Amino acid sequence: MDPIVIVGGDAAGMSAASKFKRERPERDVVVFEKGEYVSYAACGMPYYVKGDVESLDDLLTVSPEEFVEERGVDLRLHHEVVDVDPEAREVTVEGPDGRFTQPYDQVLIATGAHAVVPPFEGMDLEGVFTMHSLPEAEAVRDYLTAEAPEAVAVVGGGYVGIEMAEAFAAHEVEVHLFEMLPHVLAPFGETVAEAVEDHLREQGIHLHLDTAVERFVGDTRVTGVDVGDEVSDVDLALVGVGVAPNTELAEAAGVELGETGAIATDAYGRTSRAKVFAAGDCAEARHVVTGDPDHVPLALTANRAGRAIGQTMAGEETPVGDIAGTAVVKAFDLTAARTGVIDEDRAREAGFDPVSVTITAASRAHYYPGAEELTITLLGDRDSERVLGAAMVGREGVAKRIDTVAVALHEGATAHDLSYYDLAYAPPYSPVWDSVLTAAKVLDGKLG
Amino acid sequence: MDPIVIVGGDAAGMSAASKFKRERPERDVVVFEKGEYVSYAACGMPYYVKGDVESLDDLLTVSPEEFVEERGVDLRLHHEVVDVDPEAREVTVEGPDGRFTQPYDQVLIATGAHAVVPPFEGMDLEGVFTMHSLPEAEAVRDYLTAEAPEAVAVVGGGYVGIEMAEAFAAHEVEVHLFEMLPHVLAPFGETVAEAVEDHLREQGIHLHLDTAVERFVGDTRVTGVDVGDEVSDVDLALVGVGVAPNTELAEAAGVELGETGAIATDAYGRTSRAKVFAAGDCAEARHVVTGDPDHVPLALTANRAGRAIGQTMAGEETPVGDIAGTAVVKAFDLTAARTGVIDEDRAREAGFDPVSVTITAASRAHYYPGAEELTITLLGDRDSERVLGAAMVGREGVAKRIDTVAVALHEGATAHDLSYYDLAYAPPYSPVWDSVLTAAKVLDGKLG
Lengths: 448, 448
Description:
homodimer, FAD/NAD(P)-binding domain, about 450 residues, alpha/beta, 25 strands
């Protein structure tokens, strides 16, 4: 029987390969990866630049050797799949030894995403970086070390922008953060964004909100950021304005894309073409609250979907799982987290009648030393009384508290349900009514 | 109309009184409290003895004045209800000005629990304490300050024992902890218990497991603990061997008790007698996993049930909510947490076919500084594949991670469901697959 072929050796691809081999060790799995790294922790790159993580090797979760020797995966580094032919069931590959075709029984497209390169003048100047791969992270750190810049521009106030602002600040350079929208961290809502912005300013970050970068200034090296009416002097610029799915290969194979621009998939990760799956940053997934396809390129989604598809390809049909868009980000001493739908307009578009509450509570019993303030916004639907989403920000206890709401979303819980869960309490860890319960009580009251 | 009468002014009673008045401000609520404190944070007492909490006043969450003036509750301190007559619908009260009867429309019995006093010789010696009220906590701290003991005995390795061992150790006294069972923290299971025991020893606590105290030694003051074949010299002894529900009043009123010995209640907190409710440490509640009545005297349960009963008495029927027995305890630098059913024998008694897994994972991404080990035990049922319970122990990220499982229990989730929740990930807070997800994957594999 022809092997399983996997296009792309990162989270989704390697999860699928590993799971398939565990279920069907007698079958062959070939993974084609165009680069030299597999299964690396992209989310750790800001901490490598910051210096918290010493070596890039620390970010490799499983080495190529382990995949080959311990998991029995036929891994081909530096091999790029240039064509998928669903009729002939074969892929065309360009490798170090030339071009060849590889027949497949089933194929998984796990081509990931790429950093969006904005159409600024000066993107090609020395000292201007995007950061979506280990070599790019290495280049940023090397430049930082070699050139010792005095001032740095971070363009984009999303996860990467916030984390990189912290990373650069650790090197005691002046950091300018540019965001074209009125707030950073748009998916987290205004309350969280404002708390993060205040904290970034406290930490000495120069925030330029509502500010579109027009071009980078410089001859061969970047020397400034021009926002139209003002030029800020910088010696390094990091552009993190989002990612876009790598869909060229899929499109060329006649695979349908969804409305988000990522590859459309069913509950099992199947695309519109027979025997062709897609997963990870290149693919859509179903949102657990809206029920609609969505594109939220995050690590867990890729890992989960890859694993499920590996199992499905091995013969045991396994849904890839819904996504809630759960996310958390560290911004210096603050933690911001979100899950589900927290934007009221988006809730209305999805057919809900949104009701929102925001409360401030404590991370520990009020009398216990070190209690920190925690702000929670909960969104609910007036008719069904379901919880739609949550956003939180605080210095302590945020990251795993959001998970309580995430599980509630997966289970379609109402605000009342959420307010009556038996959660853990001891003075060092929470008030008697955990702050999530308190927020749910307030939402329940407003809905009832 | 006759007022609502509430017997006992702690968590359940004051929650009910406050909620009722909020819903029906025109009606009267009379609370009889035999002591002088209401609504105090009993769970904070160990931290008062430790010195983390400076004043007992810090442990009062709402003052008597606030209940009276802001919430409109007719609160009578130093008034003991000595009889409840469900036929006549009146209570008999002994107050500072003598005995009187008070008619009621509906009554809530919220008499709480008392510390079990073991039948040791020497319980009446000076320097021997139980700790179930603020005055007792004050007495312990005063004795500690005034007598500067060199060695202390803690009898009982439950929450109170563990927390008090930490409290005493902070005063640099020798601490002996006696537990008659083979392990401390029985409800947390063996894996957690052993981790806690190792850590207690590291912290210099002298653990005496499998060791029944026979008597306290001393003339007027305690000078030793006799375990039969050995006497340990101590200058102070703290006995925390559990609590028992205060049911005398209910029994005298003809209210039925359940098998646990606490007051039997229905889903709305109603007892066997008309118009008589019970809540808090004196009452049973339904366990969300077994569906059976259980007695887990914890703060949140009392607060939740009180609040729900206040709402029900006000005319809007509200279930008190199921309990999962979710609990967390700090033991020096470790956190231990549990939820649901984790004892295999108990699971079998409840009709399940238990399957257990224990995994060790990290609290953060493996490469992120400060990542700590986390041990998780998950119990599942072979037939239904439902998750039955979890226990966790580690130095970081334990307290709120248990809540993820607690919500799953409330929703009757399977191991597969739990393994596919979209939980938060960023390197400073968790691995890509949160340790709860990893444990659920392993359990799912073992069940499948």
